[in-house]
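Priority: low. Protein: AAA family ATPase. Input follows.
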Amino acid sequence: MQRPPAEVRYADELARLRAADDAPTPPGWALSLRAARAFVVGDDALGVTRKFVGDPSLIDRALVSLATNRGLLLVGEPGTAKSLLSELLAAAVSGDSTLTVQGGAATTEDQIKYSWNYALLVSEGPSERSLVPAPLLRGMAEGRTVRFEEITRCPLEVQDCLLSPLSDRVLAVPELPGGAGMVFAKEGFNIIATANTRDRGVNDMSSALKRRFNFETVFPIADFDTELALVEAEAGALLRRSGVTVAPRRDVLEVLVTAFRELRTGRTARGDEMDRLSGVMSTAEAVAVAHAVGLRGWFLRGTAGSAADLASCLAGTAAKDNPEDLAKLRRYLEQHTGWRDGAQWRELRDARRELPGG
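Result:
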């Protein structure tokens, strides 16, 4: 698999946490709140790695929300690891992060709740055998955490199908007779939803649905060294999986992270104002660019990616959202890199001539 789910990638760590877990555990949970927190933020004594870079108090609040009868909604800019955090929380709480709904304009209630095997439906009518459970029904029946990615990309009427499961903890299947027509949530069931604050095509949530969620904002990484270390580790892992045997150059990664932070905030390291890019210059995007830089250098020349490779890959990031961003990137390379020390900055500045439209 290109990317196994968290419960598979970190199966050994989850097993160690379960074996050492002697704290009180909420009904239906695979781990206690303490052990689930350690799975996300790390525990050196048990050899558990840190998987999410952010405020640990956010993890505490998220876990407490999941232990209540209110859902958890993670909001923030794209690329702040909301989806990763929801996956880690689901793996820690339920041991399964795969009960996932991917929200979008074409998402229907059938994809969220249940559908039917129409061959069986025609031959024998509505029955439990012809019912095809979707993630929400399975999560309620099995007492597991359901993940709802990009909930605000779904139409409002589709979002509101969560009202009864979140408030009454019951899902009605009116086609089935008797008691089979009501699915009551078992202990351990809850919903983790994510929503971006910047993407176009977003539908607002109804007030009724908002009241059934606790909102937590996931912010970008504030510290430069922390972001650099994360980009280096994640890009290195991606490059190894792609067959690249040389590590990414740290000086190039420093340039990359610096450029992303300055283009994201509209201010250079020495305080100069500059044009902000309208595109998403997130940490996740920086990892993707670092991966592309490494691939470009290795497969085209057999070396680690250079600053010139970085300029070409930055162009693809800048041009994807707004054509004017490419001109802003070119001005940044012309005006705000000349005063910096280092051959990598000079190489990046000189490579601006290779940008599209240059």
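Residues 153 and 202 are 5 Å apart (CA to CA). The longest helix spans residues 283-301.
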